[in-house]
Amino acid sequence: MNSESILQYIVALLGNPGTGKSTLGNCIAGKNDDGSLPFESGLSYGSGKIVRNPVSRGHRRIVDLPGFADVDKTRNTGLEIADIINKELFIGEAFVKLIFVVDLKYGRVMPKDLATMVTILTAVQEALHDKTVEVKYSVIVNQVKKKQFRELKDRNGDAFRKVYASLQIDGFGTQNILILPEVEALSEEENAVVPMEDLPELDTFIENAPGIQMSRGTQIMIDASKEKLEELHRKLQQSDQALDALVSELRHLKTETIATKGKEEGFDWKAAIAVMTPLIIAGAKVGLEFMNARQQREFLQKSQESLTPGPRIHEIDGNGNFVN
Predict the structure, then answer these.
(1) Domains of the chain with CATH codes
(2) Which residue intervals make up region (Disordered) (predicted)?
(3) Would you place residue 234 in the very low, low, confident or very high pLDDT band (cuts 50, 70, 90)?
(4) Which alpha helices (DSSP H) does 176-225 contain, by range?
């Protein structure tokens, strides 16, 4: 399996236990020459030694990195993860592709996974010493049930919009999102592996994923005590709940207005939009709290694609008010 090819980039898989991260790593890397798997699931980083050794496959080096639920909770979580990342990832000049692996619960990305993403991305941004440099990364939404997978394939549908919105957080955002279905053979057996040819979209996604050019000597520092992680988790949960309530209200109003339009001629769309606007403002101020201006515009544009003629909301000003 190993090759003498020149290393072109590092694939850094990040995520919490239970997301299928190690299984994806095995899928990307394939088995070792002796038939063993490079990344065993269920192993802990809490002992202080690295138990998932990076592997090289052709022009890729694949690294399985921990999330914040992966380490010994009695220690400083941020320091431990920073130490692992610095040892395994930032080892010299390298083009690094950060790929966060998450799964869904009730159709949304879990706050603990978002907390891992925000904290690590913030640390990488600070390590670059240049806030104008965009931290490019990708997200794999893994282990999606069949029915939900069919819904998420429609990138203009409510299901995908909810996932997309939850991933635009705290000034960070990406459109490089891959949805992978649950593979029954993998869910029934620990440390199983699916051949890459069975998931051709995964190989293409990895190859085309954006990345960051890291300089020699780059070191990240993660300030993430248990208290700070709990506070971030709480804020993300509030934002998630507000966005969910907003989507529910808009869906109800949209159904109601369509039914009304079917009964009456000359339906007043301006009046209908006027009813919706206060709900949008109330919910989106919280739901979009973690987005920057560009991400807000993209999400609002996606959200409005399903609405029939009416005024367009273009951006949010410094006071959190919508500007037409």
Answers:
(1) 9-224 (3.40.50), 228-323 (no CATH)
(2) 302-324
(3) low
(4) 184-187, 200-208
